# Entry
Amino acid sequence: MNSYKNILLINFGGIGDEILFMPVIQNLRKNYPTAKITLCLEGRSSAFVKLTNLIDSYFCIDIKTKNKYLEMLKLYFKALVGKYDLVISAGGNLLIAPLLFFTGIKTRVGYNTSSLSKKFLTHSVELNKNQSASMMYFDLVKPITNGKFELPCIEVKELEKNPNSVLVHPGVSKISIQKDIIKSFNSKEWADVIKLLFKAGKTVYLAGGPDDTECIEGIREELKNEDLTNFVDMFGKTKNIFDLVKLIKSSEILICSDSAPMHIGVATNTKTIAVFGPTDDETLLPKSNKFIALKNNVNCRPCLWAKRQTTCKKLDCLKIDISKIIQLIQ
# Structure
């Protein structure tokens, strides 16, 4: 096995995608403990680097903007001057393989997505989407290491659990909503979930990010006539992503959407119940009694990404019996 000293990792996507990519980083750090590891990611996901001490440096390339070719040129020069001896790219862009070839990086690993991949990569890995996304990413390190797959892990000092607590995080990114991608409940449905938790005697914490303002305000309006003795509104009080990590870690149960908080729940080993509509829980949640998909098994789901790029108008997949939550939390 080669002894790599300077490693470049390229993974574009949201914070959830970066967390799913963590098994690659964890494995490389175990196999090459003294190597310098640099991560190239999108600017919108730069907060991810605060969640791990396994990355030595990072830089951002916003390849999905209208200036994508300028951004690719920026990536080329960053890779060229970095003097890396190993690069692993998780992207499917056809131009990435030849771009990396011309940087002179000796070992180049990526998915076999075209004839260019086979020609310009030293290791062209078959892309197997019929498995969890984390394991799909982990396939990229198999040609160069012997390590075993491990779930994503966010290291955080052990915190006392808030007794009898359930953290509700209803948010999904505003970008997805703008693109007509509906993956979760509306405000009233989330409020109904919280009312059920009150009846079950749970203390409910409510959190969300800046994109969730409208949803949170709707939940507050729906709850204004409720007894809020066992309700802790944490919206706006988590100032950064690590505050959210600590809040999730200190909760007995997390209930959320298919979103970045779900992946944080998994990576902090917190019992997580995630609402799944059109997306595929089989690829995004590990198989475990601790990580549970709340879903309606209609025949047409999952459809998002595999069959369509936006959600349908009927959204039968999100017509979920929320009373199941009480059974799941007990």
